[in-house]
Protein 1
Amino acid sequence: MPVRYKSRARTGGRQQCSSSNSSSSSTTMTTTDMSMGKIIFYEDRNFQGRSYECMSDCADMSSYLSRCHSCRVESGCFMVYDRPNYMGNQYFMRRGEYSDYMNMMGMSGGIRSCRMIPMHRGQFRMRIYERENFGGQMHEMMDDCENIMDRYRMSDCQSSNVMDGHWLMYEQPHYRGRMMYMRPGEYRSFREMGWSGMRFMSMRRITDMC
């Protein structure tokens, strides 16, 4: 959904962002996907220095903070990225305090962009495919899967179609290793998305328990 960003100075050097829907958008937010979330980023560890409060997607945090070493998720769930425009390694953050997230989460670089995950109520449904462009084996999932090899005898997943809900895909079984956030839509080639050489082996729903 297209959004417009606006920011204003707040006491203590904090910046705030909010979003508004474009009147020309053809996409409608349904009651099953509700935008509810707030995250605050801080320049220094232990929530020190200038801060930036965000309640929507942010494609480039460098416009607000020159660096980021800690954050606090006050509500909702977010994906954070170590490159602008939602690129690079992805990390999932739920409600809580991250006083030194680089050390806590094993991140080698700072947060450069973030995406808010809408809270979803309703069924979850995703189809995973063995090959690119929806080729090879296909399996439809409605719940978590800690190992697609054990469940489906499927050694690789290279494309998918997310029909309902929001998901995380992991490169290793049991929800370990690098991850990718999947929202409703078609993903014809993980390789062309910059995930060449990656094999996603487990999938988990993002529930409203964030």
Note: Residues 33 and 120 are 5 Å apart (CA to CA).
Protein 2
Amino acid sequence: MVVGNVGMNVPRDIFYEKEAEVLVSRSYGPGRYDRNYEERGIDYPIYVRWTERRNMEAFLELVRQKRIDLDPLITHTFALDDAPEAYNLINTGKERYIGVLLQYSPNGTGASGTVTHLPGSGKRKRSAGIRTIGCIGAGVHALSSLYPHLPGLPVNLAGLATATGLSAHSVAKKYGFSYCTTDYQKILDDPDVDAVMIATRNDLHAPMAIDALHAGKDVFVEKPLATDIDELRKVVEAWNESGQRLMVGFNRRYSPLARRMKEFFGNRSTPVVLHYRVNAGQIPPEHWVHDDEQGGGMLISECCHFIDFMQFITGARPVQVYARAIEPTGTLQKYDNFQATLTFDDGSLGTVTYTTLGDPSYPKETVEVFCDNAVGRITDFRDLELRRDGKASRERRWLAQDKGFAGELLAFAKGEVPDFAGSVSTTLATFLAWESIDTGTPREIDIGTVGL
């Protein structure tokens, strides 16, 4: 039995003569690295008895029976509330360690207690718009781009719901939520919460938004609003029935440079020609964003940003889309390299070029706008160049890229939510771009087909 990543200089003759076998241990057992098993809960047939789960259960049972002694391996112990210090110890490597134990308080409420109140947090604030927000999800995007702006908003922070209690408690304590939970329904049932922020995986956006609308909450939901047309119809139906406000996290329209560009073209007399070029890096094929059910692919997950930006600049709705994509080969995923051309109801034209084939040293996002003898260009939301009649101006923010995250959250807190029909148009356009690639034909964009 070979355990771990070690050399395998196997003497063939000896194994051949004795008909011996070499087995390589696969970490926790069958099921490891299998998305269907680990993430979707699809178990193996009965003849695969010692799966990853059963191996773990057997190990825990041996620990419970005290037949395995882990005490000699424990070098550090931290209270659960001090978990960030434990991770800091591991990440910095300042001290030698073998086992780091996170210890629950002996006075804790036990596994049945899903809500933990945090004394001294959630200070009351006054707001003319939304008063109290509850948040769902604490993934990388939420922690890096959204939650750091929450303490500066004129709102009260109520509950935070995440999949695990450890992450919920740590994040809630850091940003000043009044309580944390592993059950997002607790937030929807909270009468003090009048708005919910949803920052989970793509496939959970629509179901949670629908639940929040039915609970009578205003909703901020990260993009995409839905991962297919049927989901979009259900969201629209819930929005129509509830009368609540719903805002999708299309942040780029709130970038200061985007606002400056819109002002520059504010008094135009002709349609606009736009080109949004995205030089994106490759995301590993096994990443959940490529999963049709969980992520919807890069076209659904990312292209919505760029279509919304075009709507913002033009002030017009997309009415037709025609898209083509490079066929997936090797590491190239379906819909990872595509061009989509959109026609807007004011006659403007917009093209999105999204590719993973470029050099990462080149700017990631470049937007060009042409209209009325004028040109505008934004590069990575750090550099804005405007030209008209031979005169040029430039605004650079090399040390402070601003994609509009703070601006969008402030707008939501004030109740200044963009027209919902625009968000539906953007989302529907991405689905129809997908259809256009598959059929090779242009697709008409009509939000009436989804209930608006």
Note: Confidence is low (pLDDT under 50) at residues 120-127.
